[in-house]
Write a structure and sequence with these properties.
The chain has 2 helices and no strands. The radius of gyration is 27 Å and the shape is flat. Helices cover 45% and strands 0% of the residues. The longest helix has 32 residues, at 2-33. The N and C termini lie far apart (73 Å).
C-alpha cells in the first residue's frame, strides 16, 4: 500500500514539473519575440495596458540608442605576449615567492 502512495505522489510531482516546464518554455518564447527599444511611447491612458520595458544598460550606447554590434571583441596577440602577461600576473599574485627562477 505504501508503494502505491509513493508512486502516486511522484506521478503527481512529475506532472507538475512537466507542466511548469511547458509554462516556462511558453513564457520564454513569448519574451524572446518581444522587441526592445523599438516601442513607441504610449499615451498616458494606455500605460496600464502596454507597459514599457527598459533595455539593459549594456545594450545602449552613450546617447541611449540601441547598439547593433557584436559585443565579443577578441584581440589577437602572440604566444610570447600572452606568456609574458601570464607570468606578470603570476609574479604579482600574493602567493608567489619573492625569488623568481629564470628558465
Amino acid at each position: 500500500m505504501l508503494h502505491l502512495i509513493y508512486i502516486l505522489a511522484f506521478t503527481i510531482l512529475a506532472f507538475l514539473a512537466v507542466g511548469n516546464l511547458i509554462r516556462n518554455l511558453m513564457t520564454l518564447g513569448i519574451e524572446s519575440q518581444r522587441g526592445y527599444g523599438t516601442q513607441k511611447s504610449p499615451r498616458s491612458g494606455d500605460r496600464s495596458n502596454n507597459p514599457q520595458y527598459a533595455p539593459h544598460p549594456e545594450l545602449l550606447d552613450e546617447f541611449g540608442n540601441m547598439v547593433n554590434e557584436p559585443f565579443l571583441i577578441m584581440r589577437s596577440i602572440s604566444v610570447e605576449d600572452a606568456r609574458e602577461q601570464l607570468d606578470a600576473l603570476y609574479r604579482s599574485s600574493p602567493g608567489s615567492s619573492s625569488e623568481t627562477r629564470e628558465e
